[in-house]
Specification:
Layout lengths: L1 E5 L2 H11 L3 E5 L5 E2 L7 E2 L5 E2 L2 E2 L4 H12 L3 E4 L5 H16 L6 E4 L7 H8 L7 H28 L10 H17 L4 E11 L2 E10 L2 E2 L8 H13 L3 E12 L7 H12 L3 H13 L15 H14 L39 H16 L5 E11 L6 E11 L31 E11 L8 H11 L7 H10 L3 E4 L2 E4 L1 H13 L6 H15 L5 H20 L3 H11 L1 H4 L20 E6 L2 E6 L8 E3 L14 E5 L6 E7 L2 E6 L6 E4 L11 H8 L3 E5 L6 E7 L2 E6 L2 E4 L3 H6 L2 H13 L11 E5 L6 E7 L2 E5 L4 E3 L11 H14 L1 H7 L4 H12 L11 H5 L7
Helix pairs in contact: 3-5, 5-15, 5-16, 6-14, 8-11, 8-12, 9-11, 9-13
Length: 862
């Protein structure tokens, strides 16, 4: 029997079907071991020796692999064809060797697509493990570990509220923060444009003023309303005739097939997918045999695939859409060993796959790959200049017409922030024509700051800078979200206060290690390792000899000294010069105190030097001198019953209202959804009156209370909660409505297991358990009676297929045992496994169950 190891059960099932009865295919469910989340897992003093630990949730799978390996005549490692796939194969081999279960013959095979032809061809061409790729994996993993587990403790001790730092993560965060600073420091500039609405032969068009009083007009030339009105009057008074018609042919070539990076960018732009969601769906399409491997830097396609694409084009379109020669694209990847074929369909005769998000992403991949082999689009760009009788003023109209669509008939690449491409059509005109002038407008504009990064544009920027690898971008961006360093609004990244503070700290004390050139240079060195041009331990040694002393130096400094340095470093942002020339650090409350950056248990904030006499504070993220600056306490008015002032204040946790002083003072947070959008005296009185008793429940006789909590407005009765939709509802909800809402909340609770399913999808294709689609408290989910898996927001429950549901359950089941492992740490059986691992020479030093708690403190490394 020959044993084949792959990553996923879906892949295992497909491949075993192709190979026949002599082969047994098992899945490792991804990586089987990693560096323990503790100090000492990488030892720089011992040649960067690494102590690996098996994942606690992989024990059952590792035992199955080891048992099968003991009776196998040959081990075939068939994991993915990249650095991570090579690493998984290496880990499997090392664990089996330590368990003395490694067959005498071990081969490595790779295939770019899970089709029968590709798999059988790969099996006929086995090779040994690629030591250079393994060394590159070890170097990258050690680098990320050393940065994360050396730098993160410095952050925890010197910068309250900071969570982690990482080699690529911190540089990606710096890009987001720097863009935020650009936007805040941006000063809008006024300018005006003058345009005329014209008509020729019954067809309207717009012409812009490009020359006025003999002078060329640029975007910012007309900066005042008076000049704009004067220019408008001159255009209105002039009679314009066509002076010149210029037509230029244009050719647009199709874009190359997708790489990992361009797929993530285009899926974000056109489908609204996050990078992580794109990669999850692409992984499933790959495992289903629908597309080629989705982690690639290459843009080239296999010759047989090009032929199949050309055949499909010829069948779909007429001969003009097929270029005479096949198109060849060259990869820009620096490391040829990791530059695989582009992402493409495995069959160009298959234009649809699956449903929902799977179908949408496949359609994008299919069209992009097919379009890459189609003819160029031919366009015609027309420019018409019209001058007035004096020859002093010129109007210009531009337009574009598609002569032959070529690849545009199938696919057009999206853009992140595109301007008008003048694609409008113009009427046919000749020199001497005098189009009718219908209306002249003068419009005011203001220059705009650079746009915040979207996932697509941030991935693109990281790739341009040579930072990270396309296959890691999804996890890198996810870490930034999970750490609350950034937030996403309208598909754009906004830097949170914690992210800005961490970036400032790293820029001030570790500037070299968050510089773009240094990080990109490290990527080049890692590529050199995987290409056999550098030795991995030497690269690590060169990094470590400077990095370790720097972290030790910062660790010795007092937190107060760190805060003082950051106060100076951030002064231009926190305390910019004021328009009236007054001291930007002057306290707006007491007048004679000086504002400065302070560190507290929950992070940084701005406070007055006269504390505790003056208790003025403002949030760290409020730059001084900006519209969002806290102007100090604001008296809303007097309470109608007590006569006391109701004061609006701003604290480190946001704005709040206060009535009274000291321990007797009443305070309340200001919700964001006030109907007027602003806090009024009436609303201040209402908020300070909370909690509000709605009345006594008609069945229990216990009070029903409405209030605002950590998660928003709610109802409370007898220890049970019901959600309210808005702050206004707290004061409007009556007894009948409250009773109904509490009853509905109780029915949605976890004990309502007797509910009918929304749909019975069928039997799980691998376990044969019945899969049902259910509606839960937090949305739709699927269950096989043993495992529940929540549907991602991007998955339409009405279009969910059986296979998609099964894959969600498989993924959830693979992740779930980690929690159980924690509970099983105490039994003696777990401890009995420890000496066995030592005897076999494995590097596992702890029971796997202890790993789970450590992960909570683990520093992010990418």
């Amino acid at each position: 029997m020959q044993l084949v190891i792959v990553e996923s059960p879906a892949k295992a099932k497909t491949i075993e079907k192709y190979l026949g009865g002599d082969f047994h295919v098992l899945a490792s469910y991804g990586h089987i071991r990693d560096l323990p989340a503790k100090d000492g897992s990488v030892d720089p003093d011992d040649g960067f020796a690494m102590s690996w630990e098996n994942y606690g949730d992989k024990g059952k799978q590792l035992k199955a692999i080891a048992d099968a390996s003991k009776t196998a005549t040959r081990l075939i490692l068939a994991t993915d064809p990249d650095r991570e796939g090579e690493a998984i194969s290496w880990h499997v081999q090392e664990v089996l060797r330590a368990k003395k279960a490694l067959p005498s013959q071990v081969d490595r095979v790779t295939f770019n697509a899970i089709t029968k032809a590709a798999v059988l061809d790969a099996m006929a061409k086995p090779r040994a493990l690629d030591e250079d790729l393994i060394d590159a994996y070890r170097a990258r993993r050690a680098l990320d570990y050393l940065v994360g587990f050396t730098l993160s403790p410095v952050l925890w001790r010197k910068l309250p509220g900071a969570k982690s730092a990482g080699r690529v993560q911190s540089v990606a965060l710096r890009l987001v923060v720097e863009r935020e600073r650009e936007i805040e420091s941006f000063s809008p500039q006024e300018y005006w444009s003058v345009a005329a609405e014209m008509e020729q032969g019954g067809q309207g068009f717009t012409a812009r003023l490009v020359r006025w009083k003999g002078e060329k007009i640029d975007r910012l030339t007309i900066g005042k309303e008076g000049d704009a009105m004067a220019a408008k009057a001159d255009v209105e008074a002039g009679r314009f005739t066509v002076d010149k018609v210029e037509t230029k042919p244009l050719t647009r070539n199709p874009p190359a097939p997708f790489t990992t990076s361009t797929l993530q960018q285009e899926a974000a732009r056109k489908l609204g997918f996050s990078a992580s969601h794109t990669m999850r769906i692409a992984q499933q399409l790959y495992e289903d045999g629908a597309i080629t491997y989705m982690r690639t830097d290459g843009v080239q396609m296999d010759g047989s695939a090009i032929s199949a694409a050309r055949k499909a084009i010829a069948e779909r379109y007429d001969g003009g859409y097929l270029p005479e020669k096949p198109r060849q694209y060259q990869t820009k990847a620096k490391n040829a060993q990791e530059a695989h074929e582009a992402i493409r369909p495995t069959e160009f005769g298959r234009d649809k796959v699956g449903s929902g998000d799977h179908a949408r992403l496949y359609d994008l991949i299919f069209k992009r790959a097919l379009a890459s082999q189609m003819a160029s689009a031919r366009l015609e760009r027309t420019t018409i200049d019209m001058i007035d009788g004096s020859g002093s003023h010129t109007l210009r109209a531009t337009g574009q017409v598609v002569i032959f669509p070529g690849f545009l008939a199938l696919y057009e690449e999206g853009r992140d922030d595109s301007d008008d491409d003048d694609s409008k059509l113009l009427p046919r005109m000749s020199e001497g024509d005098a189009p009718a002038k219908k209306k002249v407008t003068a419009e005011q504009h203001f220059t705009q700051p650079p746009p915040r990064y979207s996932e697509a544009s941030l991935v693109k920027r990281l790739e341009e800078l040579g930072i990270g690898r396309p296959s890691t971008y999804a996890s890198t961006l996810q870490v930034l979200k999970d750490r609350d360093y950034v937030r996403i609004e309208k598909n754009r990244f906004f830097a949170e206060e914690s992210g800005r503070l961490v970036t400032a700290f790293l820029e001030r004390f570790f500037e070299r290690y968050v510089s773009y050139d240094f990080t990109a240079g490290l990527e080049d060195e890692l590529d050199d390792i995987s290409g056999g041009r550098a030795q991995w331990q030497e690269v690590l040694e060169a990094f470590w000899k400077d990095f370790k002393p720097k972290t030790a130096e910062i660790m010795e400094q007092k937190p107060s000294d760190i805060t003082a340095e950051l106060d100076k470093f951030l002064e231009p942002m926190l305390f910019p010069p004021r328009a009236d020339g007054s001291n930007p650090r002057a306290c707006p409350m007491c007048g004679d105190g000086q504002l400065s950056l302070r560190g507290g248990r929950f992070g940084a904030f701005i406070a007055c030097s006269n504390y505790p006499e003056c208790k003025y504070t403002r949030k760290f993220g409020q730059p001084g001198g900006k519209d969002g600056e806290d102007s100090g306490p604001e008296v809303l008015g007097q309470h109608p019953e007590t006569g006391q002032d109701i004061v609006k204040k701003s604290g480190r946790f946001g704005p709040y209202i206060e009535m009274g002083e000291g321990k007797e003072a009443k305070r309340g947070s200001i919700p964001k959804d006030l109907p007027d959008g602003e806090l009024t005296l009436d609303w201040g009185v209402k908020l300070l009156s909370l909690p509000r008793e709605v009345g006594l429940h008609p069945e229990t006789g216990l009070p029903i209370v409405a209030n605002i909590g950590r998660f928003g407005p709610y109802l409370l009765h007898d220890g049970k909660y019901g959600r309210l939709s808005s702050t206004s509802e707290i004061f409007e909800v009556g007894m009948n409505s409250a009773v109904v809402k509490l009853a509905e909340a109780a029915n949605r609770g976890p004990r309502s297991a007797g509910r009918e399913p929304l749909k019975v999808l069928g039997a799980h294709p691998r376990t044969e358990l019945e899969i049902k689609l259910m509606e839960g408290r937090y949305g739709a989910y699927v269950t096989d009676g043993t495992t529940n898996a929540t549907l991602p927001k991007t998955v339409d429950k009405d279009q969910l297929t059986l296979e998609e549901a099964a894959q969600l359950i498989d993924a959830r089941a693979a992740a779930a045992p980690a929690k159980k492992g924690k509970k099983k740490a105490a039994p003696k059986k777990a401890a009995a496994k420890k000496p066995a691992a030592k005897k076999d020479g494995d590097t596992v030093k702890k029971p796997a169950a202890k790993k789970a708690p450590a992960k909570k403190k683990a520093a992010a490394t990418e």
